[in-house]
Specification:
The chain is α+β, with helices and mostly antiparallel strands and about 800 residues long. It has 6 domains: about 150 residues, Agglutinin, subunit A; about 130 residues, Bulb-type lectin domain (Agglutinin, subunit A, Orthogonal Prism), CATH 2.90.10.10; about 140 residues, no CATH class; about 60 residues, no CATH class; about 90 residues, Phosphorylase Kinase, domain 1 (2-Layer Sandwich); about 200 residues, Transferase(Phosphotransferase), domain 1 (Orthogonal Bundle), CATH 1.10.510. It contains 15 helices and 49 strands. Helix 4 packs antiparallel against helix 5, helix 9 packs antiparallel against helix 10 and helix 9 runs antiparallel to helix 14. The longest helix is centred in the middle third of the chain and has 35 residues. The chain is globular and about 95 Å long. The termini are far apart. It catalyses: L-threonyl-[protein] + ATP = O-phospho-L-threonyl-[protein] + ADP + H(+); L-seryl-[protein] + ATP = O-phospho-L-seryl-[protein] + ADP + H(+). It is a single-pass type I membrane protein. It is found in: Membrane.
Length: about 800
Amino acid sequence: MASVILGILLILVPLPLSTEAQTSGNLTLGKSLTANDQNSSLLSPSGEFAFGFRKMGQGAHLLAIWFEMIEEKTIVWSANGDNLAPEGSKVQLTANRGLVLTDPRGRELWSSNLTATGLAYAAMLDTGNFILASASHVNLWDSFSRPTDTILPTQQLDLGAKLNARYSEMNYSAGRFLFTLQNDGNLVLYATPTPLVASDSYWDTNTTTGFQLIFNQSGQIYLTGRNGTTLKMITEDPVPTSGYYQRAILEYDGVFRQYIHPKMANSSSGRLIGWSRVSYPVPPNICMSTSQDIGSGACGFNSYCTLGDDLRPRCQCPPGYTLLDSTNEMNGCIQDFAPQNCNGSRRETDQFDLREMPNTNWPQSDYEHSAAQTEDWCREACLADCFCAVAIFGDGICWKKKIPLSNGRKDPGEIGKALIKVRIHNTTSKCTGNDQKKNKNTTLMIIGSVLLSSSVFVNLLLLLITYLLYRSFRSRDSKLLRPVQINQVTGTRTFTYHELQEATYGFKEELGRGAFGTVYKGALGSEDVDFVAVKVLATRTGESEKEFEREVSAIGQTNHKNLVQLLGFCDEGQHRLVVYEFMSNGTLADFLFGSSRPSWYKRVEIACDVARGLSYLHEECTRHIIHCDIKPQNILLDGSLTAKISDLGLAKLLMANQTRTTTGVRGTRGYLAPEWFRNMPISSKVDIYSFGILLVELICCRKNYEPKAEIEAQIVMADWVYNCYYDGSVLQLVEGDEEASSDIKRVKRFVMTALWCVQEDPALRPTMKKITQMLEGAVEVPVPPVSSSFISSI
């Protein structure tokens, strides 16, 4: 009887249509929703939940369920995370298979695979459950029974049910973490989606009679037996439920967390406060919990896990290693040097060194150990062993580890010291233009020697041939040598102009333009999903020629998750184009200064992302790079909102033993360091000044210069930030930002770091590496000195 009443209510309750093509009521047989810019959706009776398409970057859509009445539109269920739907796709309700998702060409992308008969309609319920039901309102299929990574109040997991973490924060394809109520009654977390043995688990309830995992309306999550008794409380802390939305999720980092979100706007700010974590995460420290016999552990192979201040795991690469996938730090690392030669006569022991990492270990990766030894003995033993990638020394025991390293963690609880083997001089690069020149000179020397031993006639003939060969080499150099050298240096793909013209549909969709050219959106391949950004330089001479050389040589030699990746270039006739990875979420300027305030914790991540990228440019590249134009417009955001530095075209390249250079003024006013205007030598400290201004903007969520500010003292944000810090009123900077206000200790640390960055004297500004440590809380931030530029504002 209750189901009949519910069905009648779903049909009768009227809701207005919104500007986003939202529909109230039910979806009947033959009806469909279309993936387009309006994000067409079906609302629940209260309007709190929606089912339909969410746009995931340009031209890609996710069929999902989400919270409709909050700013974040948080997704709680998705259908096609592994196969996003292009623009124009539709999901239709069919009699024989239920929901069927097809692309514009009619190819099936996903279906509900309904096997029951008698389907009449689909409905979005106020619980967050999406159902397919018969005319008599019998539930034939529902999303609650097929969860993805999230559960909601009133939802339960039965025996055999599972949650699968997504790939990354904004990538809804399946990741590698699994939360399941096994048929044996044990509730288990696995670091692999296809566990083979129980030892693959990193957390479990150790129960044999478990029957259901229940998430009740009071916010409690607990495991029950068949008789209804509570076997295990998963969240034990009291949870505020009145006036709050709730959800619990197995996040992409492998940790199960519970969150709440207020339903009403905050009265002081007029904004909705974001999701807040309640109770302790499960497990509390995944870095120390994982120790698998098979698999990589909490992070990917060859990386290590640390626990951040927010209790989130962070995956990082050890010295000498770089991320395998720059878009996902949890995918592991690879060596960026050639491994040690195992040839018995050439072991290269003098070509390697050991880098120290205290409190670090990779359990389960060892293949040999020796007791009662000294650290010096351990070092020599690893250097002499070509299979040894890392040695762990502690308590007089030397453990040798081999590639791939697994279960990496850095934690005060680890008493050992890791000794990472790295090549002193990277010899992985292949021959370059110098080798070509050497080969060419060798050829000419051989011809010359032949001349000396030949008859006069033959000598004259060979002399003519030599001259022609020389002209040929010169001609070839002028036409081909530059592109070949660039291609060898960068290892990128060379495109023809015609290929890029087709990829951009005749340079149709403009993404942006600058002083040296225009950027267009393109797609490589026939499926229109591998999007790229193609920058067309205006002309072939003057500054644009320098720009082309700078961008290709600078970006092509960089490899870091927080730098926009160069994919290729075109150098054909008068056409010069550069092809970059496409950044689906646009610029930081659009993200930061838009109509809604981004999450404080996302701004924190962006600040750290930019700092890491700059630290790499300044200190880790073979040729140190000064960007010269750090500003929000040159920071781009990918699909997971990871920040990446773009537009290295204004960079000054320095050799590793250089620290300063002189140049004309470059960059954008408002972010320029004082030395640009004083004819002083320019160093990497100009980027640090610009980063300080950017950090101020991230803290306050406002542009540094606001001439229309109501309060005169707030026109120049950097000055106002210093005044607030000097007066002890840092809280004013984040007034109305509940997340930041509750994290005031970190806000103050960021403010102090920013003030160090914008010191007038370049020598007082810290290095980018030190700034990164300050932001991450790895080192204490000393009290910044009073800069002369601020004295007048105190």
